[in-house]
Amino acid sequence: MSGMKGNCLWIFHSQAMRLKPPIPTCTLNQIHAHLLKTHKPPLTFNAVLPSLSPPDAILLYNQMVLHPTSHNHFTFTHALIASSLLHALHKTLEIHAHVIKSGHYSDIFIQNTLLHSYVVKNNIVFAKRVFKSISSPDVVSWTSIISGLSKCGFHKEAIGKFLCMDVKPNTSTLASVVSACCGLRAVRCGKAIHGYSLRSLDRVNIILDNALLDFYVKCGNLASAKFLFMKMSWRDVISWTTMVGGLAQGGLCEEAVEVFQAMVNGGEAVPNEATFVNVLSACSSLGALSLGQWVHSYISTRHDLVVDGNLGNALINMYSKCSDMCMAVQVFNELTHKDKISWSTIIGGMAMNGHGMHALQLFSLMLVHGVSPDDVTFIGLLSACSHAGLVKQGLIFFKAMNDVYGIAPQMKHYACMVDMYGRAGLLEEAEAFIRGMPMEADGPIWGALLNACKVHGNEKMFVQIYHSLRSAKGVSIGTLALLSNTYASCNRWDDANNVRDMMRDLGLKKMPGYSWIEVNAMVNGCDGVNGSFAYAGKS
What we know:
This protein is mostly helical and about 550 residues long.
């Protein structure tokens, strides 16, 4: 109980310093006048410290700490909270030293505040030292160290600390260790903690429920995530956003849209920027322009949102993938701050929609505006050159990546180059380029060459590609199916059957095709097995 009380006090004081308006100027003047007159702050100034802004609190602390009778353990606690809010590590270290010299270090509340201060600054080394020095850690101590270890990536150590606890964990402790399980994708451990929370906790806690929801989503267990989401007694914007994002990333984009629409229509929580970014990603994957436009129009009614940054980039991406480049350009032009992602997205959109020259012109504008390209920018540029047949320009960009911008080409860039050669019918050059790669070509690269051979009717390379695919990494079922179908189209049935036999030996099976069309602002999905339609996205 004392640990919980200490935790609540810390939260109360930190929120007071962050949220309360600055103390009136007249009061500050009175404090200043008193200090000028006596040079000795009274102990009663402790009551003023939580009301001061963090900089003013530190200034007053500096005066109080000079006199032995003007400060006590509350003074150090308030000062540590202020320095934590200011992210001033040097001041925290100074206060830490004063605490030890003044003999107040044995106070558990000060120890927990110090521990939390180091955790906030991601200084896990000092946090572990403080924790080790606490003779009888309470639940706040354990929660702080577990949270710090998890946040800094020491997930196994965080779980180990949890297992060593000699006090009953609270909801914050469980949320922290669930986060560690999420980092390790430790499904069994996370489920065990979920079960423990159901058996041990009397009240529902939204923070713990959201941590569990995020855990199931990131571990790919969407069935458990959906079950938990439906069972939650109430859900905030984080719950809804996590569910929409998890479904979108898991490929269940229709369900993601449905959840978003239920959120809007139900009114349980108001979507925030992250919610919109996730649902726009789902619309992009579906190619659902009408749904994307509906989301955009809804955003326009929200005067608390600014179409800039992540939200603006998500809209550009959605319109680009839905082939509405006019709206993509319009959103791009209206952005106040065009970052690297904004430029890369619009360049990539131009490339995928066949506007290669426009993509190159935008790249020139990007450089004029002083924005440096990254590896994603060059994927868009090389793709633009590939679709437009600009082989020479593509070679220039590929060379400039490393020579001018210091960006080492990755597998995707090599795949773009092979695709560019292949589309231009330069199959021998494409093969020579693959042989000259500094790393072993993966499946998608050989797949790009195979597709070019099929388009240009070059059967001579089939045998070489077949043998290369057998040893290549990352060969998709689609690439092998393409090779088999290519052999079949050339009446080479034995070779086609050999590829199919290899697919069966590897346990690979081609998934049926799935398409989406929009009818009356609804997404209708049709699979290739029975031709049935699934409906999503009511407007």
